[in-house]
Amino acid sequence: MNDEITLTIDGQAVSVPAGATILQAARSVNIPIPTICFHEATSPLGVCRACVVEVQGWRTLVASCVTPAAAGMVVNTHSERVTRSRRTILEMLASTVDLSEAPEIQLLLQEYAADLQRFPGAERRAIPLLDDNPMYIRDYTRCILCWRCVQVCANDAQYVFALNFSGRGFDTSIATFYDRPMPATTCVFCGQCVGVCPTGALKTKREWLLEKGLLPEEKPAGA
Amino acid sequence: MAEINPLVLRETLSRYAPQGRTALLPALHAVQAIYGYLPEAVAVEVGRALGVPLSDVHGVIKFYNLFHPEPVGKTLLQVCTDPACAMNGGEDVLQAIRLHLGLTEEQHTAGDITVKRAACLGLCEHAPALLVGQTALGRAQASQAAELCQGRGYRPHALVYGEQRRLTLNCGKGRPTTLAEYEAGGGYRALRRALEQSPAAVIAEVKASGLVGRGGAAFPTGVKWEGAAQAAGDPKYVICNADESEPGTFKDRVLLEEDPHRLLEGLLIAAYAIGASKGYIYLRGEYPAAQITVLAAIQQAQQAGLLGPNILGSNFCFELELRLGAGAYICGEETALFEAIEGKRGYPRLKPPFPTLHGLFGKPTAINNVETLCNAPFIVEHGAAAYRQLGTEISPGTKLFCLSGDVLRPGLYETPFGVSLHHLLYDLAGGVPEGRKLQAILFGGAAGAFATPAQLDAEMSFEGLRATGLPLGSGVVLAIDERRDLRQILLGLARFFSHESCGKCFPCQIGTRRQLEILERLARDAALPGDAQRLSDVGLTMSDASLCGLGQTAASAVLSALRLWPALFD
Predict the structure, then answer these.
(1) Is A46–B350 a contact, with Cβ atoms under 8 angstroms apart?
(2) Which long-range contacts link A28-36 to residues 24+ away (Cβ below 8 Å)?
(3) Which domains does chain B have, with CATH numbers?
(4) Which residues of B touch A89 (CB under 8 A)?
(5) B548 and B333 in contact (C-beta within 8 Å)?
(6) Lower CB density within 10 Å: C or N end of chain A?
């Protein structure tokens, strides 16, 4: 017999196993909650805050991907505070980062009627593209700092710890030890980071070259 | 390029290697003291010795202000330009020093000296202040640039006032109270009383006293200790949060510099109450004088059998370790502080779970502010009823208020809860100098809100300030007279938060920068249509959706200004 708890989401009673998050509870009844940093293969961290919801009686909004559903909870997934937060987060992202290859975020930008020009004079991420190995490029003008690449390189998958954070605050970036080129790090070129990147900041070299209309080098005749 | 002698390096690191990752910040401090900065080859050795992945070592170095991956001058000169210092000419001092050293706009090092702008150094009552290496100087003037560069100038000492001096009884001498002096005045009697009772009885007394946290969150201390005492898990930890970094706050600095044994006694009482055998004091790296007094006090206590095994002949054992911060306001947030002690970047954790159940190293932890712990000895020695004889019903006891800015007598004021703001600012602190008019008061620090002269009759208590809509915070009362351009002050606060945001959650990571850009425009008289609405949306988003208290309060002052003075933002 499962421990089941019942909560209310947008006026609807939802029953879930104890331990389920508010996000899981909402998805179980097809109540949509947007997510950006969330990924099935990484530990949820509640970093992007796009999935915030309003819980009656709680002072601040909470990230539904990491907040356990509790019996008797009353959740509003589209209150004024929630929609303002989501829209502003999206507008701030759009003002900082190149989102042209982030299809899921593009859908959210439309859904929340985000004004892409909301912040005139906003400083954008302008790190020169890193092309230091034959396998993948790093274009951090597209990096939203969702943490996924660092997570899969570390305890969530590969345990090689080649990628980590550098700097702090708005000036945070993803970097290697003393900015060494990738072949001089513990990277084993497994491709996990490329696989989880939501914006195309990490891309296989092959794809990047093909997009530019360049063919990967042809094999010499007879080889 | 530094000459790296591997023997010296490995000898130093051998002290930290057995502890592993938790020793990362101490190890980096130690090797940086040898080489002056942290070259790549040194960082490699640190990672190898402690078993920490190199990318993590680099991530930690790049997170904290006081770690330098690039060469810096032998003397680091840090000039504060946060609110109180900015109002007293801190910017002029900084520029005068840079001019004296012949630095162009892009340069920061001349010969042996590297000059940096510092976030609030906690010397607000001596504004403008600076750190020259490990020497604190106050009341600096631009005309003294040459002397300041040599570490010569006004040496700040505690300015302590107030009508009822319980916490600051021993403060104001200009030197630390010795163990002998502390005991002669009744010190460590409370610890002896505590050891005669059960831990549960100690907790009951603290609960009955109504003591709440003095770091800003005001959580009932007895309830916190009870939670940690009852939590499953072993070992348990007590931690003193001495990372005082809220602009305008310097109360803990005074207690640490002049009466460290009061804090030690409070920590011992807390440890006994919750069943902890190990504790830490996490002290901000920019308090060099406090580092010396606290280390000396710990040594004195150890020698006197007040720390270590079988304290005062009882079964109670308690080890206390001092950990130095490395320059990050966010590490005053309790879970980010745990991360720092664990040897990581100071990223806050999600709450729940709360520290009493899952804290340092995932174990039950009671973490308290310096001032909070310094209240414990009185409560345990004299009892909750005696404690409650001062203050109000809901806000018992005394509070330390930090007065700075445009006030005649800046300093630390201890008064019972319940006095009026007018009494504190005018009767005790002398009001606004030179007959000027009060324009506003910044309450609670950068993460606070503005009060106006219309609120001078506000009662200085939790309930009184709540009724007035003002935050008590850490007890900052920063007076602003009619000369001041509030836009410049807001700009300074925005700069602070942008610099200190950890960068983890999107609302604060980006929001603090967007807030700064808009306020930069405002301060230049170049506001764009819609800027007030932008500030409001960004501010409310940070307040509502940020992961931790930093982001949740980063727009607090700005939002209060939008409400009080909308015309400022046109």
Answers:
(1) yes
(2) A31/A77, A32/A77, A33/A64, A33/A77, A34/A86, A34/A108, A34/A111, A34/A112, A35/A65, A36/A104, A36/A105, A36/A108, A36/A144, A36/A146, A36/A198, A36/B506
(3) 6-63 (1.10.10), 75-149 (3.40.30.10), 160-387 (3.40.50.11540), 398-481 (3.10.20.600), 486-569 (1.20.1440.230)
(4) 506-507, 510, 541, 545
(5) yes
(6) N
pLDDT (tens digit per residue) in B214-231:
999 999 999 999 999 999
Model confidence at A222, pLDDT cuts 50, 70, 90, reads: very low
- Chains A, B: CB contacts under 8 A, how many? 149
Which residues of chain A make contact with B509, given a CB cutoff of 8 A?
145, 169-170, 172
Taking the CA of residue A60 and the nearest CA in chain B, the distance in Å comes to 5
In order of B222, B256, B333, B367, the CA distances from B242 in angstroms are 20, 9, 11, 10
Asked whether the beta carbons of B227 and B355 are under 8 A apart, the reply is: no
| Pairing between β-strand B237-242 and β-strand B278-283 as defined by DSSP bridges | parallel
| Protein fold of A1-124 | Ubiquitin-like (UB roll) (3.10.20)
B537 and A CB contact within 8 Å: yes
The average pLDDT across B315-334 equals: 98
CA distance A69 to chain B (A): 12
Q: Residue-wise over B20-34: b if at least 16 C-beta within 10 A, else e?
A: ebbbbbbbbbbbbee
- From B128's Cα to the closest Cα of chain A, the distance in A is 27
CB spacing of B517 vs A121 below 8 angstroms: yes
B218-257 burial, b at 16+ Cβ within 10 Å, e below that, comes to eeebbebbbbbbebebeebbbbbbbbbbbbbbbbbbbbbb
Residue B303 burial by Cβ neighbours in a 10 Å radius (0-12, 13-18, 19+) = exposed
Domain A136-211 matching CATH 3.40.50.2000: the answer reads: no
Provide, as residue numbers in chain B, all residues whose Cβ is less than 8 Å from the Cβ of A93. Answer: 506, 510
Q: What is the ipTM of this complex?
A: 0.96
Q: What is the pLDDT of residues B402-412, one digit of tens each?
A: 999 999 999 99
CATH 3.10.20.740 positions along chain A are: 1-124
Contacts of A92 in chain B (CB under 8 A): 506-507, 510-511, 514, 538, 541
Residue span(s) of chain A under CATH 3.30.70.20 come to 136-211
Tens-place pLDDT, residues B347-391: 999 999 999 999 999 999 999 999 999 999 999 999 999 999 999
Q: What number is the average pLDDT over the span A42-70?
A: 97
Among A123, A154, A170, the residue with its CB nearest the CB of B501 is A170
- What is the rounded CA–CA span in Å between residue B55 and residue B327? 20
